[in-house]
């Protein structure tokens, strides 16, 4: 498939963005997504107290509201919205709403799935750019990945949020983590189900605007870490 054919395939792709108070970054992120050639974008507003929903809608995204807090709950709400459409997407990609993930590489992320070479592709944040991720978050991530290897026999280079998966594969995983265990649960279940898994390096930028709700402070990071530990043991 040539580059332009991969570009054409983007009409079979939908992007889900879980967002909490991202009014400052979203217009730029959504502009980049449109420029990259993806039009089907669902922003899940997870009880924002700012104008996240309005700016997302003004920028042409479809807005779904999920009042129950939690990153996974928001992703599930995005899936539910897409599954209610007359036609489900062939591939769904997830990315953050803060501008850390660069939509310009979306074709490389979804390409292997559209071409039938993979079912699930995770963007591995390039190490030289992970200065945007605080040390405690990187260390916690490394511990979780070591345990994933020890307990599940799976080697994961990253648990990054920028990822793409074949719709039918995602459905087969029966995802139910409603919080920060979502990304890890997807990788562990994909491994257990024998999905064709790939990792590709992706750029990672500091958030464009607004404030971090997770890795920027210790307590939310610890809470996210605890959720991941729970998933590590529950998924055995
Ligand atoms: N649905 C949902 N999304 C959240 C929540 N907290 C943060 N997010 C979103 O998850 C993504 C990552 O959060 P962020 O604050 O950037 O965390 P950081 O990258 O660790 O600093 C962003 O798109 C946030 O808007 C939450 O409680 N629920
Ligand atoms: Mg972030």
How would you describe the overall organization of this protein?
This protein is α/β, with parallel strands linked by helices and 236 residues long. It has one domain: Spore Coat Polysaccharide Biosynthesis Protein SpsA, Chain A, CATH 3.90.550.10. The protein is 42% helix and 16% strand. It is built from nine helices and seven strands, in the order αβαβαβαβαβαβααβα. It has a seven-stranded mixed sheet, sandwiched between helices. Helix 6 (135-152) packs parallel to helix 9. Residues 18-20, 22, 46, 69-71, 74, 96-98, 100, 207, 212-216 line the site of guanosine-5'-diphosphate.
Computed over alpha carbons, the radius of gyration is 16 Å
CATH class reads: Alpha Beta
Number of domains: 1
Structural class computed from helices and strand pairing? alpha/beta
Describe the main β-sheet briefly. 7 strands, mixed
CATH architectural label? Alpha-Beta Complex
Mean pLDDT: 94
Taken from the alpha-carbon principal axes, the silhouette is globular
Provide the helix percentage.
40-55%
Question: How many strands in all?
Answer: 7
The fourth-level CATH homologous superfamily is: Spore Coat Polysaccharide Biosynthesis Protein SpsA, Chain A
Map the helices and strands:
Layout: H1 3-8, E1 13-19, H2 26-36, E2 40-45, H3 52-58, E3 62-65, H4 71-83, E4 91-94, H5 106-114, E5 120-125, H6 135-152, E6 163-166, H7 167-173, H8 182-193, E7 197-202, H9 218-234
Parallel strand pairs: 1-2, 1-4, 2-3, 5-7
Antiparallel strand pairs: 4-6, 5-6
Helix pairs in contact: 6-9
Bound molecules: guanosine-5'-diphosphate and magnesium ion.
Guanosine-5'-diphosphate (GDP) binds at residues 18-20, 22, 46, 69-71, 74, 96-98, 100, 207, 212-216.
């Amino acid at each position: 498939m040539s580059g332009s054919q991969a570009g054409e395939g983007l009409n079979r792709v939908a992007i889900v963005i879980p967002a909490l108070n991202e009014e400052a970054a979203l217009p730029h992120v959504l502009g980049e997504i449109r420029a990259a050639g993806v039009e089907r974008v669902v922003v899940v507003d997870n009880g924002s107290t700012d104008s996240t929903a309005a700016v997302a809608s003004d920028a042409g995204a479809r807005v779904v509201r999920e009042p129950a807090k939690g990153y996974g709950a928001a992703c599930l709400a995005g899936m539910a919205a897409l599954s209610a459409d007359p036609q489900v997407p062939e591939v769904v990609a997830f990315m953050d709403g803060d501008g850390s993930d660069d939509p310009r590489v979306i074709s490389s992320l979804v390409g292997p799935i559209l071409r039938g070479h993979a079912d699930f592709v995770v963007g591995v944040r390039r190490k030289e750019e992970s200065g945007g991720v605080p040390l405690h978050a990187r260390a916690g991530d490394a511990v979780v990945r070591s345990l994933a290897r020890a307990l599940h026999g799976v080697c994961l280079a990253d648990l990054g949020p920028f990822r793409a998966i074949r719709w039918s594969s995602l459905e087969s995983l029966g995802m139910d983590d409603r919080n920060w265990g979502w990304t890890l649960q997807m990788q562990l279940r994909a491994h257990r189900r024998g999905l064709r898994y790939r990792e590709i390096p992706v750029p990672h930028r500091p958030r464009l605007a607004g404030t971090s709700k997770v890795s920027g402070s210790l307590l939310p990071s610890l809470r996210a870490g605890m959720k991941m530990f729970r998933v590590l043991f529950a998924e055995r």
